[in-house]
Amino acid sequence: MAIASHLADQPSRYPKSTSTRVGLVDASLNADQALLHDLGDVVPGLQELVDLHRTANPTKDEVRDFFWFSPRHGYDILPGLRRHRDWSTLRRRTTLAALASIHRSFDFVVADSDADFEGESETGSIDIEDRNLLARELARNADLVVLTARAGITGLSRALQNLRELAELDIETERILLVILGAPRSTRHRSELARTILRLFDETVPSHSLPIPVMVPLRRDLEPFIHDGTPPPRSAFGSITAAVSERLQQVEPRDSRPSFQTAPIAIIPGHLGRTA
Fold this sequence. Notes:
Elements: H1 2-8, E1 22-26, H2 33-36, H3 46-52, H4 60-64, E2 68-70, E3 75-78, H5 92-105, E4 108-112, H6 120-123, H7 126-131, H8 133-141, E5 145-150, H9 153-168, E6 176-183, H10 187-204, E7 214-217, H11 223-228, H12 238-250
Parallel strand pairs: 1-3, 1-4, 5-6, 6-7
Antiparallel strand pairs: 2-3
Helix pairs in contact: 3-5, 5-8, 9-10
InterPro entries: P-loop_NTPase
């Protein structure tokens, strides 16, 4: 929410456009952006947009019709899956086509996805790769991946596991922004935590180097904003949005033509193939 609101205030990358169009895609298997933004309904949403690409190649305006504009936040929202199990209705070819359409329909696209990037090569299961299709493809094609983690033993352990999986997806570490939530307020303790994370990452993935993570202290006064569906104060996430802007200026943008497309997969003799 904070990142999408911040990008909505940026100038449009299209000279003739009077405002910046930002699309927030709820790509999580347990979608909750419709609830957090108090949309009132979840139809149409991601499933309907994917279904449209079975038989049509929609225009930008037709794609935007599936998004819900939030005047309080200043961006458009695409509601996600209504049930966790509905991932099984998303066919690979039409899902990738829908992601490509979203990419070309907005100035900026922000996606809320799961941190589960395992695929067939890691698990031997095509079903698992299909379940994680949204997270894998969005991470591969993102200019910047913002990975959030809780400060603490379990949070840092999961963050290191996610960072290793992102590296296995061939995502450059300069395109990864690690955000530690609930970080200590003491500058000395933050420095110690950052050094620990960088050292553990170097031991886990020695072939990559991780940029310094962003530390965000715990705030207990944000629940009323979430309850009312209003944007949180900018001061609450100023360090995150500032880091996002800085990193986006440092990295080279991905190709304007996204690689959301199905590619032929070589079939090993004696093995079963797969369909899109």
